[in-house]
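Sequence and structure are no longer studied apart. As an example, we show below a sequence and the tokens encoding its fold:
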Amino acid sequence: MRMVFPRRLGRARDACRARLRALGPLARTALLAAAAVPVAAAAWIGVTGWLARSELLAAQQDLNALRESLATAVGGGAAPAAAAGAPAESGQERLLRSASAHAARAHHLTTGPAWFTVAQLPFVGDPLQSVRGIAQASDELAGEALPPLVRAVPRLSAGAHAGGIPRALTELESQAPTFARAGRVAAEVRDDTHRLPRSTWLPAVDSARTQLSDQLDRLVPQAHDLAVAARVGPTMLGAHGPRRYILAFQNTAEARGTGGLPGAFAVLRADRGRLSFERFGNDNDMDGVRAKVNLGAEFAAQYGNNGPERTWVNSNMSPHFPNAARLWTSYWRTKTGQSLDGAIATDPGALGLLLRATGPARMADGTAITADNATDLTERVSYAKYTDFRKRKAFFVDAARTVAGRLMNATNDPRLLPALLSALHEVQREGRMQVWSAHSAEEQELASRPFGGVLPQQPGPFAGLVVNNAAGTKLDYYLDRSLVWAPGACTDNGRSVTATVTLTNRAPASGLPQYVTLRPDAPPYRTRPGDNRLLVSYYASEGAVLTRATLDGRPVKLIPGAERGHSVYTLYLELPRQSSRTLVLHLSEPESDRAPTILRQALVTPLREKVKPATPCVV
């Protein structure tokens, strides 16, 4: 029995050979060639894929070196060849040319019939499709998007060193079209990368695709921000005539829609890039002053009861910064008769990030304001140190003046420029600085970017948690917020959505100054020091309808409203010390499989958010 199978195999082999002999030489050659094609294709893809990987790694090394070289050039001046006017290629250009060459070779290696054909195969071809896309994206970035940016940075740096800030502003303005084109190319590459397969059978390829996608998600907004800054920055910084702005320092220990209560403020003058302060003040200076600006019926319905046009500290309850900016400039015009060119808002968190780049600022009494203590000093320590509110307000103004002076001096030092720009980007990323221009063309540009502080008007999923302190306390220093957005089942009218909001008051039971815990709202029920009260608003998608809501598991009625196309649902919430409360909103929203745009209100502690994925609706 053991000899049966070998005999059968032998007979099959002999029969196969007989059939091949019967086909003739030409047919046998064709059959063998056809059988060899998949093997050859696999070998070709394997070899060229390995070579492409090596080229992409080399391109990445060149780009890393280029990034370091550009930082050195900006901080220490232009490269020697450029400074001397020599025609020789700069070090940055050599690195960029090398990176571009490596990326182009990787792109070339992953093109051709074998790669194209196998990449079209379902499942099997997914990682090859991703590799082709990664190589093409790298080629387009290194060959089209980065060169104008790389060539512009040394020119801007050289201009700042040779002719000072006015020359740098002129250079920046001239580079606006270049930056805009680089942004468009980067955006196209990002969109192509997002269309590549997200999950294949080759994890290393998926990781590379994710890494490239994340880098592009950071690069594209930065490129657009740079283009807008080049178009409007020089004019706003006084390149074509002096400008004046009101700069509000928001106290996030008492929450407002744009961040915190507008306590200290200053009038900032910009003249040919040189910044100076003409006056400092605080909210008491606006007592009895009334803003004369009409923000529309929708704004009046949502915020009119709080008197934003006659109560300065309630002027920024809306999260749409242009509303606050128009009110602030109107307040100033009513008080002084002087028209301003715009408004800027910032907070201690932003000042701390900027001080990390410049080094500490020191007040007249020797108090050091540093990157690590800026928020704690102004929003916690100062309340315990100064029991007299007049001295405390004077401290806030002095602190603002001290930090602002340190930052103004730093802007005149080209060596600090790289660190300042990096810190400014971090400030913008956290939403801790907002800018508005009274000039419509400039405002249109600013409104398109996050630092414009605009509540977006756009279709699609949206989720925003906005809190305003309704107790008059300074307890939002101890406030934690979380938001969970969970899409549910598809319905005839769209899709159900559940938004879960959790608010936690970490205020200690004892030890806080009376001014921090004092309740000017005088509620008709008993409270304890540390208890807080919030005006909580949830901003939903355009066309969303609230079906029901619960607070700590019990049904609750919310006040419906609207702002800039968003459905808004609001309630007053008592939040005792050392406690958490959970608000759950059940909504019916227009059908969409996309993740929501999240509105992030910048307070002391960042919002913790979680977005759950949506299952596509089946038609």
User: Anything to note?
Assistant: The first helix runs from residue 4 to 23. The radius of gyration is 31 Å. Confidence is low (pLDDT under 50) at residues 1-5, 75-88. The CA atoms of residues 385 and 391 lie 10 Å apart.
